[in-house]
Every structure is written in C-alpha cells, then in structure tokens.
Amino acid sequence: MRILMVVRPAAGGMKEHVLALAAGLAAGGHEVEVATPAGSDVAAAAAAAGFPVHEVPLVGPLHPLYDPRAIVAIRHVVREGRFDLVHAHGFKAGFVGRLGAMLGGAKAVVVTAHNHVLSRTDTPSSARARYRSVERSLAGLVNRYIAVSDSIRRELVDGYGLPAERVVTVHNGVEPAPFLAPQDRAVARAELGLPAEAPVVGLAARFSTQKGLRHLIDAVPLLCAEMPDLLVVIGGTGPLESELREHAAAVEATGSLRWPGYVEDIARFLSALDVYVSPAETEALGIALIEAGLAEVPTVATNVGGVPEVVLDAETGVLVPPADPAALAGATLALLRDPEHARALATAARERCLREFAPALMVERTLAVYAEALVAAGESERA
What domains can be seen in the chain, in order of their start residue? Predict the structure, then answer.
C-alpha cells in the first residue's frame, strides 16, 4: 500500500507518533511518504529516517490565502504519487489533506485527531463554532477518523457530531527500548546539577497553558514545607517560560526549582526523578506518561482528558483533580513517604505500558482502520 502522511509543523507527541507509525508501516512492506512544510521538525526527522518528504505550505490555523495553496500542493503530490491512502494528522492537516486527496484521486482518507480542540479553555468560542462547522460539512470526505484516546473520540462524536461508527480509538505506541535500558541515576542527576540523595520530582513538557505548570509551581511551597530538601525539576521550553519563572519568584518557589531547558534524552532525565508529576489542564492521551511508565517512575497526574486511559488510579499511579496544587502536593508526598507502594505502582505501570502502548499494536490497529477506510471508499463509489 502507498500511504501519504500529511502533517503540520509539529514537535513532541505528534511528530513522534507520525515517525513511529511510518517506521512500523514501512517495516511491514508499505511505502510511506510525508507531506509537511519545508524546514519543519517533521520534515527534518522524516528525511533523516529515510522517508521521501514533499514540501507543502501547511501552516497555522484556517487561512483563506494559504489553505488553497496547500490543497493544490497536496493534490499534486497525491496525483503524481498515486497514493492508495492519505492519512492526515491534526485538524488543519485533516482539513486541507482531505480536499487535496479528493482532488488528487486518492482511494481513501483517514484523519487522526491528536488533541482536544472544542474542550480546550484557550479555544475561543468563535473558533469552536468554525471548527465544528468545517468538520461537519467536510466529514463526508473522510472514510475513517482515528482518535488517539477515548476522550478525543467522545469529543469527535459528541462535540462535532461525527458518526460513531466512523471514529476509532487507536492509542499511541511508544518504543520501549530506551526506557528499559539501564540508566546511571548518579550520572543523570549530576548532568542536571542535582544532589545524589535529595528527593526529586518533576517532569519535562512544553511550557504552554494546557500543561498546567503554574499549578505545579504553586505546589512547590507545600511540598518543601514537608520536605525542605526536596527539589522540583521542570524540563522543557516554550512561550510561557518567562511568565512561569516570574510566578515562581512571586510564590517564593525559586530556590527549590530547577529549569534544565529542553530535554534531549528523556530516558536519562526520567531516571533522575523519584516521582513524575503531571499537572496538565488538558491532555489528549499523555505520551510523556507512557514514557514515565516504561521508565518505571512512580507517577502523579491530573485526571483530565485521556490521562486515565494511561494512568489507572491506585493501580499504576495516582490521579488528582486538575488545578489543585494541594492535591498534587499531597499525592506526591504520599509516594515519596511510601517508596514500597510507589515501586509497586511503577512496576504495574511498566507492565501495562508494555502491553497496551506497544508500537506494533498501534501499527496493527491502524492498518485495520486503513482496511475499513478502503472498504468504505469502495462502497461509496459503488453507491
């Protein structure tokens, strides 16, 4: 099967998902190519992995000038490449990708929804109405939708009004090898400038509103009141960095916080932590939580979006309400004070992540959706 992946400029989870899926499909004998903007992280990573990359002007939100150009470019790629199926990732790529695929003569179209849109607090009401209208009006051009979590699936069905039988949940798969390899905790801590014996909690994330990092900063004084030598590490970068640092100073948390910047080796970073803490306000699924599970790091996370599909409360981790620094601090301290229980949760988390979030399982389930999409496309043509 010849498959064209269409994806906007993306870093983090979406990029890793596309690359892992493409690699798995290629290993199974399928031909995969990628359409994405020039100079994007996806373009560089896909090319480095050996996939043909087609540069298309796919940028930003809905745009009356740039979107037609992207549609024409994708149409040309599809027509010249004679692709059997176009798989678009995300709302914007799904919008232009399905139109380019139709005009280019692709047999079937699949769209994966990677993030919440309608339920996000930073999505204006006018944008919600626009996204809902566009998706409903063009849903007939998509043969199957994939949701990366049941939470996303509910939004597609209940929020957008898409037919339930055409929306399938396929959880992301994460390659476990880097997280199963032995790590030298002392070296990892030394690289981060952390003491060898102090209790250390934290995470690596993009500094954006939906990650809820402000709530973790608010929890720092509560944590350190109980454990004065505790350190909180917030790895990553993003648009809110200056604001978060200012807030940390305002709540007098700066002395217990460490900001190592962008984390290149996430497996090594995780090995330095005693507890992984995710204070997200919204989360489609939580690839970082899967990584923490594979690394066997005890986890405290907020009960939002697709998180409870990864972290089973009191079984593989601890879930707390969102935007509640006291609950976040309390659950984290409880795990630090009971290392035996924390280890039991972490062991169960690794076992479950190995079983439920394997890349091979993601590829297998995605191929099943492709088969359904091609059958549906054939039935549509005969109707």
Answer: 2-173+358-382 (3.40.50.2000), 177-356 (3.40.50.2000)
